[in-house]
């Protein structure tokens, strides 16, 4: 128990998971920063990257829930000391999710313009959006493959190799972004927004190759598809379906936020793009400790060690709040320099500066919501997570957004509504968890 809850052990899982977790937002943030500093049509290109980034995040979050489902099942079997019984499950899960990703490509590629018109994109922004998406979408299967492998490593209580893979992917993307967007005279032509898309695609391919290598070399989990189907495949699919519905609700939030921001004008969607990418960065940064909660809660639940599970949640609450406050303070200190990294347009920067403070104040609340969200995923309680997100999106976020928009609050309306959305996501999870497992831990003591 003491080792499981030690600061060293939690950070051994959390810090590599944190670094691995921020790889995806770093891809988007790098694209945002590089594109926002182009000499030609920077604001329109920045808007396009933001719209496509939102849509791709939706697709990744819908199908990328494989990571949580695999991690939950594997970690519970690690806790019960029965890993051999699910050795062939990851390969089967990866096959299912990769097949679905190819279907997504086939069904979205021909209708790219139609899809992004739903986000209020038009004119030059629509052209750039279509151009950017038609390249980036081909990285989708590689991203989902890597995510599924990361989930397997998490279940095995290992976040080190996903960290290595993520670092390589992020650094590759940064270098390629600069080279391909701005070009090298006489060697590589200036590709502008296409260069950013190709940089992300190549980085995602490299991460997938490394994921396969480390899984085969560092674990005894095979990647070869085998039959019959594992006995846990039904539970895996039910988890995925619940998470699928949940993620649709999550992305309904992002859809309405992006659609409203786009409707306010080019400068507004550009400012929103910067702010939401920084929000994503904070979310994935906090995800380091959330991942530790996910990994350890599944193991403790599998071992039926409810007392330690309660103690773990208490520690993670403290760590999460500290991380959230630190993020808010750092954002406050570098408030104005951060904006200038992403854009030189004065109108865009003024809109960003007028709203970014809400994103910063949200960080401690996000920390609590994301940590308990991850704990519930580790426990395999996907149905409860589904219902909470349906409530927070359709009963809280959307009505508040429409109400505040009617008062012409614009970007403030979006981020204030997101703050209430985060509270509605996190508070019920904390209450339910403490009620359920406090009772179980006391009952266990007297059995």
Secondary-structure topology with pairs:
Blueprint: H1 2-5, H2 7-21, H3 23-36, H4 42-63, H5 66-79, H6 89-108, H7 112-117, H8 123-136, H9 140-155, H10 160-182, H11 193-218, H12 233-263, H13 266-302, H14 306-333, H15 335-342, H16 346-379, H17 382-406, H18 411-446
Helix pairs in contact: 2-10, 2-13, 3-4, 3-10, 3-11, 3-13, 4-8, 4-12, 4-13, 5-9, 5-13, 5-16, 6-9, 8-11, 9-11, 10-11, 12-13, 12-17, 12-18, 13-14, 13-16, 14-16, 14-18, 15-16, 16-18, 17-18
What percent of the residues sit in helical stretches (DSSP H or I)? over 70%
Write the element-wise H/E pattern from the N-terminal end onward.
HHHHHHHHHHHHHHHHHH
User: What's the overall geometry?
Assistant: globular
User: What's the mean pLDDT score?
Assistant: 86
| Strand composition percent | under 5%
Enumerate how many helices there are, as a single number: 18
> Which structural category fits the helices and strands?
mainly alpha
* Rg from Cα: 21 Å
Uncertain spans, ≥5 residues at pLDDT below 50? none
Report the count of strand segments. Answer: 0
Cα(first) to Cα(last) distance is 19 Å
* Main sheet: strands, sense, barrel: none
